[in-house]
Design goal:
This protein has 452 residues and is α/β, with parallel strands linked by helices. 42% of the residues lie in helices and 15% in strands. It contains 20 helices and 13 strands. Helix 5 runs parallel beside helix 6, helix 6 packs parallel to helix 7 and helix 16 crosses helix 17. The chain is globular. About 2% of the residues have low confidence.
Amino acid sequence: MKYYSTNHQAPVATLEKAVVKGLAEDRGLYMPEIIKPLPKEFFDNIEKYSFQEIAYTVADAFFGEDVDADALKKIVYDTLAFDCPVVKVEENIYSLELFHGPTLAFKDVGARFMARLLQYFINRPTRNGADETRHTVNVLVATSGDTGSAVANGFLGVDGIHVYVLYPKGKVSKIQESQFTTLGKNITAIEVDGVFDDCQALVKNAFMDAELNEHMRLTSANSINVARFLPQAFYYFNAYAWMKEKALEGNLVMCVPSGNFGNICAALFGHAMGLPVKRFIASNNANDIFYKYLQTGKYEPKPTKQTLANAMDVGDPSNFARIIDLYSREDLRNDSNKEHSTHEVITALISGATYTDEQIKETMRQCHQSTGYILDPHGACGYQALKDNLMPGEIGVFCETAHPAKFKEKVDAIDNIDVEIPERLAAFMKGKKQSIEMSKSFDDFKAFLMKE
């Protein structure tokens, strides 16, 4: 499989190059040239398969041409050492719980898969049979919350890989921060005096700096990397299998709390492969850039607003470029929409929602009082979007992207409860914080890396 850039000004790349480089030479995001539809038989019998079996089928369609079958199966099965169950919250509304992994967040799936795939490429012998001497791969990751902990823990102790986690000072929860600043070993936490978009800009600029890339081998583990975002499609297929087993798969609506748009982008790739979802809802917090695009057809990035749902605090979502590219492709157009604009195709499949902090708080309170289900602030955006937008006869599934205990202080205060902290999370909080303070100046960041 070859991968092209969303900017269409860079050479096509192999999967290995796309994973190891992360970003194309023209600053575009890599896209697979072909999106393979899965056979009807797979969907007819999907409820009979395990999560790992479903995920391997999807992974084979994405990566099977480039990764040995046994190795790919091991990568998938090792990645999914936990479940992502679908839980009923109320009539016609279900939660896809994505917080059962090691760091209790949805990004565990993509981060664990990418760590294993990257290690596979690093350790793979060269074509002439001799082991190639490869320098350490340095993974740069910007985080507004859960990405940092998922990537750090996914790569912790992996030989040949060093991870630098950049996060905005004072803008992630203490529990989230503890999950990547207390690890040590091959994980370095960098506390940036800025917002998430500043962290993301530092990462992107690092990839484009020739001197820095000559000095060290760089890649990204943000959702800009194809090996991070594509595996997130696994759990949407699994959610469909759960709903099909309950005979609830008809008129299915998937609602995804959205920040950098990697998660919903993976769902849309699944849909392009044949996943029978009627439509999607992208639910935003006050950072409503995509919501306004849906209304106006104009994409206008804005400075990030700090909100209660901090992992979605993104003012210029990277994966917007992938969504535009995906629905501009001729191979994905059918006779009914060949003459439609890209914006028309997108709005026919995806609707939006946006919520203020006060609305998120009210949703969390109401849901807990009426159903007993505890939402985290991000899941609350997804749940409320279904409450507001489901049509008669539709069944909604929203992504509960993180365990509410990761936002314990906020959840306790809003719901007037005492959320129990899972043992895995409590263990992180006992560690000593180790981080490096950094300005948002790229010159300072480059100087730091050049000394590494």
